[in-house]
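[Q] Does anyone have a clean structure-token version of this?
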Amino acid sequence: MKSVCDYPKFWKPSTTVQLSYIFTLILLNFAASQKVPRLNPFFFPNGLHEGQRARVVCTTYQGDPPFKFNWFKDGQDLPAILDTDIRQLDDYTFSLTIDPVKIHHSGNYTCLVSNHLGSDKKTANLLVTGPPKWLVEPTDATIQAGGTAVVDCKVTGSPAPRVTWKRVRDDLSTTGSLQVANNGSLVITGAQKSQEGMYECSAENGIGVALVKRVQVQILVPPIVEQKFKVITVEAGRDAVLECSVKGEEPLFVEWLKDKKPLNRLDDLSKRSRTEQLPSGEGGIKALLRVSSAQRNDGGLYNCSASNRYGEDNMIIRVVVLEPPSSPSKVEISQIWSRSVRVQWAHDDSGNSPVINHTIEYQQLTDVEPVGKNVTIQGSANSALLRNLQPATAYRLLVRAHNEIGSSQPSESVQFNTASEEPSAPPRNIGIKDVGATFVIVTWEPPARKEWNGPLKGFYVGYRLSQNPKHYTFFTAPYENGTVQFLLRGLQRSSSYSLIVKAFNDVGSSPPSEEKYFRTRDGEPPPSPLLTVVNSNEESLQLQWNVLGEGSERISGFSLHYRLENGYWNEITISESSQTSYTLTNLQKEQLYHVYVVAHSRYGNSEPSDTITARTSSQVTKTDNADTGHSIHNLDLSETLYIVVPVVAAAVIVVVIAIAICVCMITKRSRPPVQKPYADFSRDPNFKYTATMQRRQELSPPIHPRSESTLKKPPSSAYSTLKTKRSDMTEEPIYETVLDEMKSMLQEPKSVPTIQSNVDKATV
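[A] Here you go.
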């Protein structure tokens, strides 16, 4: 490429600028001489009618040819089908001719002219008037009842004709089920028989003659049931009425079917049913089917089939026969606690009506006159928790189901026993019947029967020194009916004690009773009397007793206790200290009596004598001990000799032992002795007093009675105790009577046992 330096030296940049300026001036001068085309307005004549002629001229008054002309109608290219004639008169003028004009020629016509500089356009409106003409002429119509029909009445004209429909002699409203569409058509919806008749369509626009046409509208009414499906319910035993309302052209025919079978093929139902047809106020019939004494198998689907010459229609009626529910089945106790149980059952049949609740009826079997109780379980549940029961109690229950119709028959009854609980109340009326220097006789009554919560097995008797706040030492006493007496031995002289009593069963023990306080005496009570039966007859027993040993001289009187077999104890007070015999009178014939004697002094009462058993009869009854069966009264001479010698030896031994015990007691007075249990069951030395807890929680550590194989049968005496054994003592037998001990000493001589300083020997 050449640079500016390559041109001749006479060429300068200013010369180029000057030439560009001159060229621009020339172009502007040429453009100013050219003109954009401009058109004169044009107009169509007013009031043109169909058949007349219309012509307009489109002329430019400015602009340079060549020009291009275009015609448009309503914004679109002018179609050739409009029968128009377009001609160019000269370079500046074009004409548009319409001959003849018609209604469809009405519209806006536009002339557009353009050249290379621009364009221009002008628009004129052509309005052609004409009388109404049919586009779609009305014709007769047939309508299915309930259906919809459109009767056309379409017209054209300018101005637009007004279309009206008339029923002959009646103006029709366009509201409701009759209405006129925007295009003039008559619309009938939901056709009814009352709409049948002659209709007239007229169209006019003020030009020429109005258009009028009459048509016949016919409504065909086949059978129409008012409701296609419904459900009726009827209680078993009552009459069922099935109703089917039908409208349509008569004659109408109605047939009833059940489960798609004619009623005349159902023997039982056909005998208990009858049909009726009643006129309906709205034109039609009401068909009825009556079924008397509805039964369960009458339920099902019924078909009301209506027909006429125009068609048929059907109605389905579901009949539900309502009954009380069936009895609950498979009633069982699935879970058992002490105060509640879970009951479950099965549903078989609700009786075609929802089960609204169940009733559990239950009662105690142990009541003399059982009182029934009811619990209502809402809803259709098939299990329930039965609460507020008594522990260890037999019950019987049954279940009923209920619906809106009624109650079911009761289910089969179910019996069950609730689980046991520990007694919920302590023994009652704790009393101190007698206190000696080393023993106390405690009495109490069992808790109220409703508080047992299970069969009572016995009682725990706990005692402790008042100045010793340690745990109680417990003994076990067997259960007895009525007032219970318990002899607690081996106590310290002139000491204050407190005791409690608890009842127990297989589950646990009751709360403790209130503490009972007592103080042992400072002197020894008299020894236990030796009681014998001297004579007996049909209504009396002659008794005799002796008191041997230290303390017999201090006796102030006696108390004689007797009872009939399985009867209650009676007490006779004898104030004469020298009296050693007594005759029981007014007794029952040929009956067993139990008797024992207690001696009294200012230091307290002696331990009871052995309880003897005698029968009222004409012959003397052998005097028996409750456990050993031995008798003093019937001993022969050889037995007496065997007894006298050991008695003397035993007396000496007793004196030696007593002296040793006194020495030990003086030296060990400051600390409590190791007590020897004399209760009917063995004592656990680790037993601690605790309050009664919830069920299945036991005392810590638990006390378990010995097995039957290790226990001796409890004696019948109210004060007797079982033989016990302690690991810290020399094993020594305990005898029920002095005679047993003496005889054993004669048969098997034995040395005097060594007495430990911290143990009191129990008085036998």
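[Q] Thanks! Anything notable?
[A] The chain is about 10% helix and 40% strand.
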